[in-house]
Amino acid sequence: MKKVNLGKKRKVAAKLIAKMAMLLILAAMLTMLIKVARQDSAVMDELAHIPAGFGYVVQHDYRLNPEHPPVLKALAGLFGEIFARPNFPTDTQAWQTDVNGQWAQGNIFLYNSGNDADSIIFWSRFPLILLTVFFAWFLFYWIKKKIGEGAAFITLILFAFSPTVLAHGHYVTTDIGAAFGFFLGIVTFLKFLEEPTWRNTILTGLATGLAMLLKFSLVLIVPAYLLLILIWALVIPRLSAKERLKSIWFLVWRTAVVGVVGIVLIWVTYACFTFNYPQAKQYSDAKFILGPTSKMLNNLDLTLIKHSLTRPLGEYLLGVIMVSQRASGGNTGYFMGEVSNTGWRSYFPVLYLYKEPLALHLLTFIAIAWAFYKTRKTLGGKVKNIFIKMRTWAYEHMPETAALIVIAVYWTSSMLSPLNIGVRHILPTFPFIYLLVARQISSWLKPKLIVNPKKWLHSPEDIYNKYFIALLKFVIVVILLGWVVIGAFLAYP
User: Fold this and answer.
1) Does position 138 have pLDDT exceeding 60, yes or no?
2) Burial class (CB in 10 A: 0-12, 13-18, 19+), 15
């Protein structure tokens, strides 16, 4: 009886220590983000995003910054309005007559209206900081539930002390929000695939709509969904070809319902923020921005804006068109001794290698080597048996399968795009990369089983495998993760 109680106490103590460690990591992350947010001046994008957010919240008017969705800017505006209480001028030329006069309005609002610019900037950033820390917690919680606590802790450390995450996690920009939205959409869709109930359909639709309201480029979640449907239908065991086709059809039409729910959420959100945007000005602004073109999509957008019921969707479509036009046109940049507006295929791979810690790349190398070792050992025999084993693995490891799909879809699209203006544009793939690395590292750390567990005195081979090699692996991983953490603190602020 005493042994049982002692075992329970140890488990409770272990859970408490794990919880305290998780909270300590989140607290360190929150502290760094807050302190840096207090001392950083506004970055260029914030000069447009912050006044736009105040325009949405205070005026219910979407005339500023239509090329980005509203949710993150509205959160910034809400916190800024509550805690900074600034004067938002609407008697300016930038607000009244200019078409998308975001830069001029931002300059006037922050620095020429008698407002405390530092206070506005900090409180506008605060909800984005909270979102970043919440995202770190959500990553930990979900991975712990789906894969295991070891993988969850490794992922949390890689995310919480990533220089890219820390750099962009305290600005009023769309990058961290995009990463969160993409991850939330994928994990809810995985739940939907496992149990395509109406409840999960609605929840996935809301998550998808939210993702689309965080960044327009998250439309890439649609091909990711379709690939996941195809793979899921192919890997489900014990189904005939006819049943698999039926499963695909069922999931496709249910996914169409997911899309409808997402569109309704987009309509409701944009309706709130275009309520006081005069319809005539909205139409003339959109017509000016789109230019003298007769493209079908542009005409559809203007038609939607003409009608009161559909003009919220017209404003959303305007943003999508603006982003797609900018992405297709590129952006003049400098990279590896060259200046170009057509982009470079090597841009994002090279930036990822430079911007993320060397310790992460070493962990990635170990993870890939270990994955190849396990795969070679597991996939033996005939081609048919190999296919069956791969299908079984994909079915039993859908989080990892989904992560591979997301990385493939997002990186392919980003590398083909001429818009090369920062590693932040592939930030939505970082949580999935961390997940895959953490999954393999946690597997690598598990000691080999003792050959003769019933023997009281283990053989030298048993001792070598279970204790020496296991300890060596643990030390390597601790050093590399410590390198990530210490590197972040040394680079601070």
Assistant:
1) yes
2) exposed
Maximal C-alpha separation, the chain: 86
Give the Cα separation of 239 and 85 in Å (integer): 61
Cis link prior to 223 (omega < 30° from 0)?
no
* C-beta of residue 219 within 8 angstroms of C-beta of residue 413: no
- DSSP per-residue string spanning 325-357: HHHHH---EEETTEEESS--TTHHHHHHHHHS-
> Is the overall model pTM greater than 0.85, yes or no?
yes
- DSSP H or E run through 76: helix 71-84
Tracing tokens 């930990």 back to the chain, one arrives at 140
And the tokens for 274?
């275009």
Residue type (1 letter), 198: W
So what's the pLDDT on residue 384? 59
DSSP-based helix, strand, coil % in the chain, nearest 5 = 75, 0, 20
Q: For residues 227 and 398, give the distance between their C-alpha atoms in angstroms, rounded to a whole number.
A: 12
Provide the phi-psi class of 330: left if phi over 0, else alpha when psi is between -120 and 50, else beta: left
Provide the strand spans (E) within 401-470.
none
Tens digit of each residue's pLDDT (9 = 90 or more) over 425-455? 999 999 999 999 999 999 999 876 555 555 5
413: CB partners within 8 A, 6+ apart: 220
Strands 338-340, 333-335: pairing kind: antiparallel
Give 416's Cβ-side CA count (13 Å radius): 6
Residue 326 binned pLDDT confidence (cut-offs 50, 70, 90): confident
Mean pLDDT across 218-236: 91
pLDDT category at 381 given cuts 50, 70, 90 is low
d(CA 444, CA 374): 10
What's the sign of the alpha-carbon dihedral 403, 408, 412, 415?
Answer: positive
In this predicted structure, the answer to whether residue 382 has a pLDDT above a threshold of 60 is: no
